[in-house]
Amino acid sequence: MFVYLSKKIAIPNNFRLNCIAWNQKEGYIAVGGEDGLLKVLRVDSSVSGSISGGKSRNLTAASNLSMNQTLEGHNGHVQVITWNEQHQKLTSSDQNGVIIVWMLYKGSWYDEMINNCNKSVVKGMAWSLDGLKICIVYEDGAVIVGSVDGNRIWGKELKNVALAAVQWSPDGKLLLFGIKNGEVHLYDNQGVFLTKLNMIPINGSQIQTIVSLQWYDGRNGYIGLDCPTLAVCYRNGKIQLMKDTNDDNPIVIETGMTTAWCCWNSCGSILAVTGLIPLLGNGETKDTNVVQFYSPFGKHLRTLKVPGREVTCCAWEGGSLRVALSVDSHIYFANIRLDYKWTYFSNTVVYTNEKISKDGICIMFWNTTNNTCCTKYVRALISIASHGDHCVLAVKNDLTQGSEQYALLVCNTIASPIDTKFTNLEPLWVTMNNNVVITASKNNFLVWSYRTPRNSMLHAGRLRRDKIYHIDETPTGVTEVIQDLDKDRSFETPINTKVTMDPICCLCATDKVLLIGRESGMIQRYSLSQITLTNRYNTGCKLYKIAINCDSSRASIMDTSGMLTMLDLETDSKKNVSKDVESEDEINKFERKDVWAMCWAQDNPVLLAIIEKTRMYVLREFDPEEPISCSGYICSFQDLEIRCVLLDDLMQKPEDTKNELIVDLEVKSLRDTRELLMKVGLKEANNFIQDNPHPRLWRLLTESALQKLDLETAENAMVRCTDYLGIQFIKRLQNVHNDQLKKAEVAAFLGNYDEAEKLYLDMDRRDLAITLRQKLGDYFRVVQLMKMGIGGSDKQMEYAYNKIGEYYAERQNWEGAKEYYEKSRNLEKLIECYYKLEDFIQLAGTVQQLPDKSPLLKTVARMLASVGMCSQAVAAYIKYGDVKSAVDTCVRLNHWDQAVELAKTYKMAQIGELLNKYANHLLSNGKRLQAIELYKKANYNLEAAKLLFQLAEEQARTRTNPLRVKKIYVLAALLIEDHINSTPATKGGRSNIVMGLTENSEDTRVIENAWKGAEAYHFLLLANRQIYSGNFDAAMKTALRLREYEDILQPEDIYCLLALSSAVNHAFAVCSKAFGKLESLETISEAVREEYEDLAVDIFTKHIPEDVRNSKAECTNCESLVPDWCVACPNCMTRFPPCIITGKPLMDLSNAWICTVCRHHVATERDVVNINACPLCHGTVTYM
Question: According to the model, what pLDDT value does residue 261 have?
């Protein structure tokens, strides 16, 4: 960082100032002094963009006084003042104990409350962060806590304690009291004592006075996870920094000064300490006013000398860019140029405000060309540098990614890491060139050959050697040569890590030279790529920054006080002997003061841009040009233009990136050339450029000469700036004899396309205007020009429409692209548009428009298949002639019926095998229902029926839901019927299948017994319903029918049902036979058998085993009388089919109704009049 005094305000009557406070929210400055002096000032910065087109935008030194009000009310010396920023109040107190609260009303300050108890001297006042409470401590130990509205909350007298300072904790729950003897006591916000803090500066030493107690409230974030925020400053110059009140390892700073005050900046990243320090001058020691700046971790950043006898206090501005100092009877303002961690490359600003978040520190990559941002989060950023198209980030490593503590990340402009190096060397400084990254700690430096996509292709076979050197060593390059020859890496030199007496403090590198600065002022020069120490330069100053020009012939050196000097790097063989002494003397004498930024031109080794305070100078050799007002940070210096970024604004709002934060400044020679060309003439400008040659100036002359059609001057200028294409253009222009046409060509060459078009149209050369717009790719204008008159052909118009469609397609505007592709009849692009717009109906319609065998058909088929439009995709494949892809699409989309049909139509044998393979895969994964569905869709009804039969058998074994089992059996039987009916007539049709002539034995058995399972469970359910409804005779007849299904139903269930129904029907002969069958079953246990025997004994001791009813019917075949419950004639063995409604046997089928689906009978058609479906198969009732 760099600090300099920028403004001084004198207080009238030379009243001595005691205290100062700056309202960081609104910008008011309050100062208190002797004899009741209390003033409120306001210093406003200049309005942005008010001078020279924004060049002085946000200049930190440009300020004026917008308020200067004296507040009257105190009689004694005002000693303590503090702001309540939340409620816009000012509180002040004097030596007599008078406390006044001031408020702002209509632009002026008025006293709101006065407390003149005159208890004792007020030593400290502090508002809580929310501004609701104030704590006031008196020298005699009295403590008062009040509210913002003036009410007293509590008070306390601390016995035998002399208070010196007070501070609230950031959360408002704790109070810190600084005691006069140097101790710090901790209380809660109700005044209850908690503990005494361990203060190292007073341990074992004499009593020390606390002059300031500061606790950063964290309102603007923190720069680290364990960042100290509490500072206790003692009169003897010692400062203790603590993370919190429980910090066991505080940081103690020895400032070496008699301190008067200290305070944190607005984000807690810098602590300013004011006081007196003894300095040696003119042979004697004299106390000098200084402000010293420290980081929260105790690192000394900068010292600023302040004129006057005694500095009493300091205060920060809200943005941390200025410090106000009360010195004697004056207020001094010091501007601060912060050392942000940032860099610039390839039109990209990389920066961070170092505020810690839950993801770490956010690094922003801002592309200034298109105003887009990329972000990257790291644990902590240590240093950063850039070169060419890449930057390197030196970060603390996340230990989950490796054991090394640090990492070097080479990134591109979109924050993507290109290469990474993990190391244990602390990368305090880092620089890079096209091939290597050099990073340094205080003792060692590392040279790492990184890889990017470009140089990795150029040096693919080269082994990467990463070497750590010690700063005290003298490398000669021999080790690197040996290592290059050592393919198996057996030769490794040990790394020296001892602490040096002269640490590294800065470094800089180009492709040829590496310069490393040391704290003693020594600069060591190394050659690249073999690291060889070639020279040492003793500068005698405390080095801060080094920069090398573009041809590595000269280096600029900046020390910690802002002094800029030069160093000649040219070797003796390259020096001009005649100018050697003169130039060396000029270099030795050269120096500039108050410099805080410098940047060499990338294309001219003698141009250097520097910033002194708020003035930018461009040095040509050693002569400065006229200064330009600027307080931006220099990004680059190229083509006589200096690009600056207003980092102060950017860091306040890192996400608010806008083009106004980038400022481009021109050097004087560029400005003068423009003025000469505009006001004087080409000849004078030519003479001036010859005296100050630069390609940018020759290009300016070229443009001006072309506009005036001075082709000779333009050609000479193009030769000077080696513009071969421009020379060719001028040769072509010399063959044009029409001046108007020449002007149009020149306008087009210079990029004034609208003017060129207008000139073409004025000459009635619309064809040339169209050609120009076509070259520019502006096809919207091409179409307009074509429509203006009799223009291009239909082919040219279609081409223009096609280009406009491409324009919309590149921007994902598919609706606009579709419109123009339709006009250009570009079917290939229309297909893509339809797909992107999800207009699949139109997409399917393109199949008809495409010719057979067109490759686009395959593309359309894939698109349609991807959204499940199987039929349309198949049609496209068939038209293309790719039947296999059509079948594969059907298979992938589970349209097996269509796949099988295609396979049969085009005689593809492998479809059945594929189907079975997929079905087996489903079955092995327990997906039987999906396998059934697969077979059904493929019209493999018999295979689906077999799986359904297996499922029904498994469900039957659970004995839980017989109705579900029946439904499954019915579904299986219906599939078999579909299988029978789907057989082509050429193969014999239904009759051959039923007779088993076309199937194997297993399939024949399945087909023959298709309805048997359904019948079994139908009659089982029917018998149970008949019993429950009291129709016992019908139930018995149905139960007798169940005897035919012993292979499907449990025999025990059948005969139990038969015994029950016959017993309640008083058919005890049938009942007796049923019990006999039950007792003979081998599948039941002995206990169950005994129960059946006991039940039979109980029944048949009461009833004779005879049937009470003995109804008979005539067999239609043999005309013999048989019992009406017989399922077959005992004489001729004719089977009587059952009625599926009543379950009784049907002897006469002449009047029976037959279901057209399952072919089962009902006694008469009258029985089905009142039902809509077949009771067995649930097919619709139809009448034969």
Answer: 95
Assign 469 a pLDDT band (cuts: 50, 70, 90): very high
Which helix (H) or strand (E) element contains residue 822? helix 814-824
Q: Which residue has the higher pLDDT, 257 or 1170?
A: 257
> How wide is the angle at C-alpha 743 spanned by C-alphas 741 and 748, nearest 5°?
95
DSSP states along 477-536:
SHHHHHHHH-TT----PPPP-PPPSS-EEEEEE-SSEEEEEETTSEEEEEETTTTEEEEE
**Cβ atoms within 10 Å of 626's Cβ, excluding its own:** 10
Task: Provide CB contacts within 8 A for 105, sequence distance 6+.
Answer: none
- Among residues 665, 661, 663, 692, the alpha carbon closest in space to that of 676 is found at 692
115/984 Cα distance (integer angstroms): 114
**The Cα angle at residue 783 between residues 782 and 786, in degrees rounded to 5:** 85
Residue 11 DSSP label = P
Strands (E), 347-484: 348-352, 356-357, 360-367, 372-378, 381-387, 390-396, 406-411, 417-423, 429-432, 436-440, 444-449, 467-470
| Angle between the N-to-C axes of helices 794-810 and 827-836, in degrees from 0 to 180, rounded to the nearest 10 | 30
3-state SS assignment for residue 475: coil
CB contact burial 933-958 (16+ within 10 A = b; e otherwise): ebbbbbbbbbbbbbbbbebbeebbee
Q: What is the DSSP letter of 232?
A: E
SS3 content of the chain, % helix, strand, coil (to 5): 35, 30, 35
Residue 61 in this model has a pLDDT that exceeds 90: no
Residue type, 502: D
pLDDT tens sequence across 938-959: 788 888 898 888 888 888 888 8
Model confidence at 456: pLDDT above 70? no
Please list, in sequence order, all residues whose beta carbon lies within 8 angstroms of the beta carbon of residue 472, skipping any fewer than 6 positions away.
Answer: 496, 498, 500, 502
Q: Omega into 266 within 30° of 0, i.e. cis?
A: no
Q: Note the Cα 796 to chain centre separation in Å.
A: 45
Token match 């604004």: residue?
649
Query: What CA–CA distance (Å, rounded) separates 911 from 888?
Result: 9
How confident is the prediction for the chain on average, in pLDDT? 87
Q: Are strands 444-449 and 467-470 parallel, antiparallel or unpaired?
A: antiparallel
Q: Which pairs count as long-range contacts for 535-544, CB under 8 Å and 24+ apart, including other chains?
A: 537/567, 539/565, 539/567, 541/565, 542/505, 543/505, 543/506, 543/517, 543/518, 543/519, 544/505, 544/506
Cα 757 to Cα 773: distance, rounded to the nearest angstrom: 8
Is residue 90 classed exposed, middle or buried when 0-12, 13-18 and 19+ CB atoms within 10 A define those classes? Answer: buried
Q: What average pLDDT score do residues 65-69 get?
A: 87
Task: Report helix, strand or coil for 292.
Answer: strand
**Distances, alpha carbon 510 to alpha carbons 343, 373, 548, 838, 883, in Å:** 16, 29, 7, 56, 65
Q: What is the pTM of this model?
A: 0.72
Q: Are 887 and 905 in contact (CB under 8 A)?
A: no
Token pair for 1171: 């039902």
Residue 783 to residue 766: CA distance in whole angstroms? 12
Close Cβ partners of 409 (under 8 Å, ≥ 6 residues apart) = 378, 392, 393, 395, 417, 419, 420
Helix (H, G, I), strand (E, B) or coil at 316: strand
Is residue 483 within 8 Å of residue 465, measured between CB atoms? yes
Question: Distance (Å, rounded) from C-alpha 877 to C-alpha 869?
Answer: 12
| Rounded Cα distance, 355 and 268, in Å | 10
Kindly tell me if the per-residue pLDDT of 904 is higher than 80.
no
